[in-house]
Structure formats: C-alpha cells, structure tokens
Write a structure and sequence with these properties.
By secondary structure, this protein is α/β, with parallel strands linked by helices. It has helices at 13-18, 30-35, 37-53, 69-73, 77-93, 104-113, 126-135, 167-175, 211-221, 232-244, 256-264; strands at 25-28, 57-58, 98-101, 122-125, 150-153, 179-180, 226-229, 252-255. It contains eleven helices and eight strands. The strands form two sheets. Strands 2-1-3-4 form a four-stranded parallel beta sheet. The chain has a four-stranded parallel beta sheet with strand order 6-5-7-8, sandwiched between helices. Helix 8 links the parallel strand 5 and strand 6. The radius of gyration is 18 Å and the shape is globular.
C-alpha cells in the first residue's frame, strides 16, 4: 500500500504572474519537502490533492528559501531576521495573502513571528485545508480504501501545543473510516518526536533513551498498522524509530496527505 509516484506538474508563481494569473494560495514547500527524499512524497501527495480539487495555487520554486525557523530556534536571531525580511519582500512583490504549508514549523513562524517584522498572512496548515475541503463537501473520501487499517496519530508540537490545532488531523482520519487508536500521551500532553527546536541538527544529549525511541514505542503499543504524522521532522523521527525497532515492515508511517491520496487512489 504505497501512493502512486506519478509526476505532478506544479505551477510556479513567477510564471503565473507573467501570464497575468494570480493564484489564491502560495504553497510553501519547505526545505524538507523540497530536498528530503521521503518528504518529497508528501509534497507530491498534497500537490496531487490540490490538482484534484482544482485549487488555484503556485509555488515559489527557486525563489523559495528557508522560513528561518531553525535559525531562530538554534539562537541565530540575525540570520532568522535576514531570512524573514527577504521572504517578506518576495511575498510583498507577489502580493501573497494566503500561505499553505505541510510544515508546522513554517506555519508557526509565518503565522506568529513574521507579523513582528511586517509580514501578516492567512497561514493554513495542510491538515486544516484538507479538513475544510471535507467539511464543505468538495473533497469526498471513499469509505473502503483504509477501512481495515488502524491508525494512531502523533501530534506535532508546533501544530498542537504551539497553535492548539488538535482537531483537524483527527477529523481527517475519522473521514477515512479507518480505526483510530490514540497513544497514551496525546494532544496537549503528547510527547515531542525529539527533532524540534533545532534538535534535528545536533548530537543527542546524555540519557538512557532518545526521545524518538520512546515516542515510537508508545505508537507501537497501540497496535496500529499506521503511524500518521503531519510534520516533516516527525516523519523522519517516526520512520527512524520504526527502523530502530525493526518494525518498518509491519508498521508504516504516512503523512495525513498521503493517507488521503491512498484513499482517493490518486
């Protein structure tokens, strides 16, 4: 059970403007979505859904850089502000009003930190976008594709605790008609995957067990077939955890967007 890896034609914002077209949404792909081989599949899956829905969107392409989130978390405030001001200038040039992203870290940064530097936008995480399309009836999920599966959902810190979004991903999972088993620690009490706050890019600290191992063990205890994630860092850590526990053949890690693509057969 894997999403089909067919080529997806993604519109570039500069090309759209050159044709006097103004897309409704900027899809911010993010560093992981552009460069990480596993997370490229998530970007591809979400783009498939956007095409399926006939959504007016575009990406920046080579004009996209980092949101600056990691620089600020790691303590390099000057680099963060340089990145943010550069992005804000690009957004203003294209008159960007609405930003879609699969990355909760970029979501949090654009929504809560860019306004301090003059960049205010409507920022939408992909799970919120998908939930809204399901609720308005434009996205109808077949009820048989994943009905035999049991899913457990891992809350990303920057979507959950930082921005209080717990419902959207779970509403999507409910729409899939699959089983849904919560981990013991969930929602505001969920355990971090271990990669946020710049931890992804530093060596592990002293201790008896790494965070991602403990979180993966909690997921395995649910008996789920699928660990659903909604963040690139969480996907890396859960995937690594499953490999570490020799469970990657029994349990799969999919992003919420990939689950929707699987259900739709795209």
């Amino acid at each position: 059970m894997e999403p089909k890896q067919k080529k997806v034609e993604v519109p570039i914002l500069a090309d759209c403007i050159a044709r006097s077209e103004k897309p409704e949404f900027l899809f911010w792909v993010g560093s992981a979505g552009a460069f990480d081989d596993r997370y490229k599949n998530v970007s591809r899956a979400f783009a498939k859904i956007l095409d399926y829905l006939g959504t007016s969107y575009a990406v920046l392409g080579i004009e996209e850089s980092s949101s600056g989130d990691v620089a600020r978390r790691a303590g390099n405030e000057m680099l963060f502000q340089m990145q943010a001001l550069m992005n804000i200038e690009i957004f203003e040039g294209y008159e960007v009003k609405k930003i879609l992203t699969c990355d909760p870290h970029a979501y949090n940064t654009f929504l809560n930190e860019y306004p301090d530097l003059g960049g205010t936008y409507e920022v939408i995480h992909h799970t919120q976008f998908l939930r809204d399309r399901i609720e308005d009836g434009s996205l109808k999920i077949p009820q048989d594709a994943l009905a035999s599966k049991n899913i457990t959902y891992h809350d990303p810190c920057y979507l959950g605790r930082a921005n209080k979004e717990y419902k959207a991903p779970r509403q999507i999972i409910e729409s899939l008609a699959a089983g849904n088993t919560e981990m013991g620690r969930n929602r505001s009490f969920a355990l971090c995957c271990g990669a946020g706050g710049g931890q992804m890019f530093k060596e592990a600290e002293e201790g008896s067990k790494e965070v991602f191992i403990e979180r993966t063990e909690e997921a395995i205890k649910t008996g789920a077939d699928i660990i659903a994630t909604a963040c690139p860092y969480c996907m890396v850590m859960m995937t690594d955890g499953l490999k570490y526990k020799n469970k990657e053949k029994e349990i799969k890690n999919y992003d919420i967007a990939e689950l929707v693509v699987l259900a739709l057969g795209l």
